[in-house]
Every structure is written in C-alpha cells, then in structure tokens.
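Collaborator request, handled under Task 6.
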Amino acid sequence: MRTHIVWDWNGTLFHDMDAVLGASNAAFATIGVGPMTMQQYREQYEIPIPRFYERLLGRMPSQEEWLRLDDAFQDRYRELSLACGLTEGVPELLAGWQAAGHSQSLLSMYVHDKLVPLVDSFGLTGSFLRVDGRSGPSGGQKAELLTRHLAALGEQVDPARTVLIGDAADDALAALHAGAHAVLYTGGSHTREKLEPVGVPVVDTLAEAVELAGSITG
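Structure tokens returned to the collaborator:
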C-alpha cells in the first residue's frame, strides 16, 4: 500500500507565525500579560492552549478569561493572516508526492469552515484526499480529530503507513495515539529543543520531512 501523509496546516504548510504571534500578543493584553518576542513564544507555547495561558498567569484562566483570550486572538488573527502565505516550496512538494503515487490529506485545528476556502484559495484542494478542520471549541488536542480523520479515509490509507507532518509536539502525540508515524518541523510554533524530547524525527525543512516520510514507511 502507498504511503500517506497527513499534513498540518498552521505553522506547517501555512507560514502564519507572524500572525499567530501578533494575535497572541493581542490576547495577552486582555489579561495584563506583556508582549512576547517570537523566540519567547516558540520556547513557551504548548498544547492544549489553556495550559499555555496557565503558565503565563500562574493559574488556569477562568472561563470568562478564556473566552476573552480566544476572542481577542481570533479577531486579530483574522486580520493578520491575510498577509500570510504558504511555506516555501509547498506546491512543488505536494505535487511531487502525488506524482510519486502516494496520497496525502490535511488535518488542522483551524476551524473547518474557514480552513476549506483558505486551502482552496491557494489552489491546493485537489492535492488532498480529504481536508478536515476543527468543528468544536478551540484549545483542544489533535488526537481524537486524527482518529476520526483516518477513519473517514477508510481503506484508502493504512495508519501504519501514515506519517503526520506538523510543527507541534501535539501532532506527534496524536500520531502515536492513532497508530501512525510523525515527523516534526521546526519552522512553526515550537523550537527544536521543545520538539526533540517527543522522540520522533525533527527536521528544519518540509522537503526533509517528505523525504523522511517515504523512508519511515518504506
């Protein structure tokens, strides 16, 4: 059976870290936390997101604070993300993987109804067997979403020959939960130092990630 890649979107295929940082700093301001630099953000960020805010505050945010944080983040992200584009080389990587006879899909924690038209605006929809985003509340983890995503793909893919490529430790944990493999990319939300302890391959480019995906399951 062919090898299947499940791609993450934000911070992986979609190079949106400037928008994420700007939106996060807007959210921090609602709870009296000062702005972070990109390096500080990548060193401290973690999923689930409420735990990230707990670290900043020294306590878990109240429900009211969480809603305020999330609203501020989403509002600012919508504005800033308009200036963001694909990570360098993405169209060629997706086309090359497809041309080699393999398959790929997209799974994101970004809200589904906004993800689908965004992916389509870059002309990428036809590259994927399936595109799934989040349909429930924000702030969760990817494991259950990945299990449902793979189940929806059915016999088209084998989890044992599937590699999730993402930028967060949570991506690797989701893959392990679903019986799949993972490769983590350092160009997004986490530093290499945050990714390496997870125990899966860590790479600096998506081209390296694709090459590894083929060898892991080959």
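The cover message to the collaborator said: "The chain has two domains: 4-15+85-217, 17-83. The mean pLDDT is 93. Please let us know whether this matches your experimental observations."
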